[in-house]
Amino acid sequence: MLDNFAHISLPNLDVQPEYKFLDLPQFNRPEMFNCVEKLLDNHIAEGRGNSICIRTFEETWTYQDLYEKANQIAHVLVDDLGMQSGNRVLFRSANNPMMVACWFAVLKAGGIVVATMPLLRSKELTTVIDCAEISHAFCDSDLAEEMNLAKSDFLKKVSFYRNSDLEKLMESKPKTFHNYHAKSDSVALIGFTSGTTGLPKMTAHYHKDILNICEAFPQYALQPTQNDVFTGSPPLGFTFGLGGLVLFPMYFGASTFLIEKPSPDLLLKAIQDYKITICFTAPTAWRIITTKVNDFDVSSLRKCVSAGETLPLKVWQDWYEATGLKIIDGIGATEMLHIFISSNEENRKPGATGLAVTGYEAKIIDAKGNELPRNEAGRLAVRGITGCKYLNREDKQREYVENGWNITGDIFRQDEEGYFYFVARGDDMIISSGYNIAAIEVESVLLTHEAILECAVVGLPDEERGMLVCAHIVLKEQHNKGDELKTEIQNWFKNNAAPYKYPRMINFVEALPKTETGKIQRFKLK
């Protein structure tokens, strides 16, 4: 029996993006295929099962190990948990091998992956579950507390791993599994993206999308081989991390090194001890590890990738001076699945994000959709092998897709040679240390605090984090304002929402600037 929630929730064809370049040989996929076959199963069939696939500081898995565990988990899903094809399965985990095995298992069994950030709290998890009508969840037992607090009528079963019930169920299962025969345009994953409204948006991607991004940015910028070892800091719940730490290495038969809590020192230790060749992380992390790099041997590195927020030129220069390596900057989006504008060895200019990678085209447009002259700042429009497909949000779909082009919400300019330069964000999204934080989400949490009457949240430039979450708060009792209350509100926030969203700056004000119609004028607060 097929659960067709995702299919019937897709936007109408007239508001879907226009796909380009799919007729190129590398992007021309058969009508029927499951992306797991190329990413995992083919390595076994072609005799590479004993090759190292995943390493951590504690363990090593070969491709055969991952293949067998994924197959056993797929049997658990179908035989014991009653998962049907098309069901959505939530993931709550740090970056570890079992999460990867579960990810492949869900697709093998015909399900749809919905990975979340491990820092999300129960209220945020419940919102995700209700929006995607999630029936099953896999959760690392170390993160069980908030998962157990998430309640929804849609959620039928939560399975925990790491010395828990999932491993026990796997013990008796066969190590082979007949994969679900998916269509290339069947939904394989749903990524949740923050927005400027309180309700998060679900963006869907097909089996063919997952494979096609592996032929785009990696081939353009990395040229991976089976000898490469990937690592990085982004969570696998973030499509930047999923691509860089799972999809790209496994598409090319390379290996990945996963770090559950990737501090700068651990990242550098992994690079040194395990001879990492390709590293993905955010500009904030590149800035910090630059100050520590002389204490480690990073001579194995050949490619360094930055995304999640704009890469300051100074960070690029400092890293290059310290190591002789040139960081590859890139811009991607959950709506587009991964990076679509970037640089490589041949195409690189100081301060520029780069050019549209193979499989994409981009332009700068005005408010009416007209292409702007070179060097004039405007809205970034992109189209290619992937595109935005919001589920059950036709209003937001019409905002993101215009005349077949994906409008990312970023302000860019393009020079005479075609290079794209980041100028600013076009909305109230705050990008801090690589995390996308919607101002409205922070405000919604703050307004539940008993001392707060009104608030407005903006992002302020910060050299270390890119942007800081800054809250302007009107108190119910003005005489209570002080540093002690600021600290109390910050600590309270961390206990009620994902800690990375908390306001690092709080300003107590007597009133918020507003228009005559009562709308808050955030530009004045910035």
Automatic annotation (TrEMBL):
Coiled coil: none annotated. Residues 45-385 form the AMP-dependent synthetase/ligase domain. Keywords: Ligase. The keyword Ligase applies. The keyword Ligase applies. This is AMP-binding protein. It comes from the Bacteria. Gene3D superfamilies: 3.30.300.30, N-terminal domain of ligase-like. Pfam families: AMP-binding (PF00501), AMP-binding_C (PF13193). Residues 441-519 form the AMP-binding enzyme C-terminal domain.
